[in-house]
Amino acid sequence: MAKIPCEIIRDLLPLYKDDICSEKSRNAIEEHIKECESCRTYLKKMEGEIPVETDKIEGTDEEWKGFREFSEKVSRKLNGRIVMACGVVFLICMMLTVALYSDAFQSYHLSKIAAEDIKAEEVYRLKDGRLYVQLKSRRRITGLSYPKTDMDTATETAVGKDAVGAAREPKNTGTYEVSMDSSINPFAGLMYITFKEVAYVIPFEDGQIITDNGTKASEFDYVGRSGEKKILWQENDEVKKAPARVEKFVKESLEKEEDDPADENAVKVLWVNPQMPLQ
Predict the structure, then answer these.
(1) pLDDT score, position 71
(2) CA distance 51 to 258
(3) Is the pLDDT confidence value at 57 over 80?
(4) Pick from 239, 238, 264, 234: nearest CA to 173
(5) Quick one: residue 19, left, alpha or beta (phi over 0 = left, psi -120 to 50 = alpha)?
(6) Structural contact between residues 116 and 166, judged by C-beta atoms closer than 8 angstroms
(7) Given CA atoms 177, 231, 206, 122 in this order, what sign does their dihedral have?
(8) What is the pTM of this model?
(9) Are strands 173-178 and 216-223 parallel, antiparallel or unpaired?
(10) What per-residue confidence (pLDDT) applies to 246?
(11) What whole-number distance in Å separates Cα of residue 241 and Cα of residue 243?
């Protein structure tokens, strides 16, 4: 029988090794490797009995050895730079996180919302007599002030105009004033409770607001970033009875805040549809 070429035998050896060749092929391979030392050695290397002499191969090829040393040197340098870059990026991220979450950063980047961006969305009289004023802002609110009393002592009687075009007649009476802030921090919505609507529940009697100190105020104003004022409610404005949905919202909100019924002259600030932070 003619001798089968070594190339064909070596192509069949993987099948022989995995025991998936035919019986005839197996007999031909075994007959060949009995006489062929080269193919017998090749099979043993495939089966792991003889380790591949990589060092010997590298030693016989100086160009390949030089290239390998060069690539290893470059790889070490690149790995070192990658580790250093990752360390720098991590440090920057940590510093940004600490800065963005700090109260000092948040306070520094607060900007008072302009009066023109605030609108009195709803004004109602609650069944318990208190005044309900719901405000809506074009900008997202991240901070607000509780109402404070300001005395309007001007004696002139001519009707004037404020910065947002609302007619005002100066009186020797008190006004209730509020302001709101918005953060210029682009990540504020992810870190802090923000909202675009807020409701004030204010003690109300004889058509006037009852302030925290018991005095009466004839006007409820918003004060913007430049000191401009916008009238949200003023004495003699028509105030309708609050609908059931508003009564329900106020009741549920005050119950969550454990409102103290005895604190009759305290103004209540309620968030409407707040956006919770991702913390």
Answers:
(1) 65
(2) 79
(3) no
(4) 234
(5) left
(6) no
(7) negative
(8) 0.53
(9) parallel
(10) 94
(11) 6
Q: Are 178 and 229 in contact (CB under 8 A)?
A: no
3-state secondary structure of 250: helix
Question: How confident is the model at residue 5, as a pLDDT?
Answer: 87
Taking the mean position of all CA atoms in its chain, how far away is CA 114?
Answer: 25
Which of 119, 126, 120 is CA-nearest to residue 204?
Answer: 126
Answer yes or no: is pLDDT of 65 > 80: no
Contact indicator for 193, 274 with CB cutoff of 8 Å: yes
Report the residue count for the chain. Answer: 279
Kind and range of the H or E element at 255?
A: helix 244-256
Most confidently modeled of 102-106, 143-147, 168-172? Answer: 143-147
- Enumerate residues 6+ apart whose C-beta is below 8 A from 193: 271, 274, 275, 276, 277
**3-class secondary structure per residue, 194-242:** EEEEEEEEECEECCEEECCCCCEEEEEEEECCCCCEEEEEECCCCCEEC
- Mean pLDDT calculated for residue range 213-229: 88
Q: Nearest 5°: phi and psi at 5?
A: -60, 145
pLDDT in tens, 115-153: 999 999 999 999 999 999 999 998 888 877 767 776 554
Rounded to whole angstroms, the Cα distance separating 224 from 112 reads 7
Q: Where residue 1 falls among pLDDT bands split at 50, 70, 90?
A: low
CB 194 within 8 A of CB 142: yes
150: buried, middle or exposed (CB in 10 Å: 19+, 13-18, 0-12)? Answer: middle
191-217 pLDDT, tens digit each: 567 788 999 999 998 888 888 777 888
Residue 102 and residue 183 in contact, taking contact as beta carbons nearer than 8 Å: no
